[in-house]
Structure formats: structure tokens, C-alpha cells
Amino acid sequence: MKTLSALVERDSFDVPAFALDPFQKAMRENLHLEFFLARGRLIVTPHLSHLATEEASPAEEARVKAILDEKQDLLEQLKLYLLYSLSVYSALLETNSSIVAVDEHRLIARFLPYGLGTCEVKLYTLPPGDPLDRYGDRIYLGRDCLPLDCPRRPHLGLGYLRHSLPEQVAKLKLRLERDARGRERVALEVFDELDGLVDEFNQQADAVLRTYPPDISSRSLPPETLLEVNRDFREIKHVLSEAETLVREMEEGMLAAGAHAARYVTKLRQDLTNDVNYILVKVNGRISDAVNGIRA
Questions:
Q1: CA-CA distances (angstroms) from residue 227 to 5, 191, 216, 279, 285?
Q2: Which pTM does this prediction carry?
Q3: pLDDT in tens, 181-228
């Protein structure tokens, strides 16, 4: 509830000129916003009504009704701002477009606090039907950082990946140590290799963050430097690809064994897949096009 209240205290969201394609329009029309309550979760439906997975307190109920009465335009702007950010600085939607389409473009965007002026957003599909009845059938698509003060991301969003990936690997290890049983604990043997790849990623990401200015674009860097940036991001992508392969093998083994804790591994594998595709499509591809003067 604190996250929703903080978001609607803003005057507006700075949404650049942005033409939605049919796929993006369908997602906007079917986008559910989710926030934590003291107990359970609040779901704001596409038409700005609300549902809760647990009974809200009277104070929460009154606050939600006031927000939905007074802040409808701002909430619609938030949806568009989120879709712009995901479309420019993430490959999450492209990577998962077939799953999104199968579920009739119904999405849940869960907003979580993540540092000053920033939210972390986790995306899930929501199968057709009553949102509360189908809530347990949602599928995790990935996570992204949403800066609230400016749509541009320093270093093409690498700073978020630098902090998020080590956090997620550490959380996964703790969860497996807590929840894995018997043969499932074999997965923990992979972490020595995975931790080594995370350390390599950290070093390469830190080098990019130190070496280049926050604005990585043809506005501020000459073609020769952009090609160096592209090389460095490609090397980061190679390390992330190795990590994704390692985690995928861990996931497949745990699923084959029927391990309940496999769902934690699946989420990390999904995050790594999204990160690899982001660098491939949105970083390497765009820089190459900019250097070579290629426009659609």
C-alpha cells in the first residue's frame, strides 16, 4: 500500500512520445497493477476497479477507493510509462510474447520499492477468467527496474543488472539451503561455478560503469567508442549466457526429480534469459544500427 500511495503522490510520469503496436495496445488494455497490503495483495484491474487476495483493513479499503476515484488519469499514465520502459530497456515482452498472447495479453505488474525514486516491477501472465480464481495459475515472466524521475536509464540500465543479479543468486542459494531436501540439495553443488560467473559479470559490469558516461548514445559518444561499448556489452552477454545455461541445467534436473524448490531456479533462469536477450536485441542491435546509420 505504501508503494501505491507513493506513486500517486507524483504529479505525472514523463512518458516520451511512444506509438504502441497492436501487441502493446492489447497488453495495456489487459494490464493489472498489483501492490502489497498489510495482508495479501491489492490488484487494480484494467478498468481501475480493485480486488484483494486477502481482506483489506477498513483504512486500506478507504484509501484505495479514494485513489481510484481521484487518480485514474495518473494510473493510466503509469501503465503507459511502464510499457514504454519495458519496450525500450527490456526484452522481457519480446522474449515472452507467445506466452502473453496465449493468455490473451492479461498481465499482472507487481510494484515493489527498490531504492530512491525507483520501483522494481515483476511481470506475470494472468490466465483468462476471474483474476482471483486464476491467481494461482499466473506465470512469472521476469523483473525490471522502473526509474520514476526520468525515463532514460544511465548506462542502458546496466547498473540495475549489476545489483539485481548478485542479489537474486544469493537469494536462490538461501532458499535452496532452506527448502531443498534429499537429492534436491545436489543443486547446491552448482553454486561454486555460478558464483564464479557472477563475480566475472560484476567485474565486467563495473568496468563499463567506470569507463563510459551514463548517456551511451550517438548524442554523446563517437562511433569508435560506441563500438567499444558494444564489444564490452557482448562480453557481458557471453558470461550471462554461460550462467543461463548452468541454471537451466539445474532447473531441468530439479524438475525431473519433481523438486518443489525448482520454481525458485526457474525464476532465476527466466531473469537470465531476459537479460541475455536484452543485450542482444536492445543494446548490441541498436548500437550497431546507430553506428551504421540503419533506420527502420
A1: 43, 33, 11, 14, 11
A2: 0.93
A3: 776 777 788 899 999 999 999 999 999 999 999 999 999 999 999 999
3-state secondary structure 211-253: HCCCCCCCCCCCHHHHHHHHHHHHHHHHHHHHHHHHHHHHHHH
- Torsion-angle region of residue 37: left (phi > 0), alpha (psi -120 to 50) or beta? beta
Give tens-digit pLDDT for 269-288: 999 999 999 999 999 999 99
Report which secondary-structure segment, H or E, holds 25. helix 22-29
β-bridge pairing 31-36 and 118-125? unpaired
Q: Beta-strand (E) ranges in the chain?
A: 31-36, 41-44, 50-52, 107-113, 118-125, 139-147
Contact criterion met (CB below 8 Å) for 157 and 111:
no
HSE toward the beta carbon, residue 107, CA cutoff 13 A:
29
From residue 9, how far is each of 103, 223, 257 by CA, in Å? 32, 41, 48
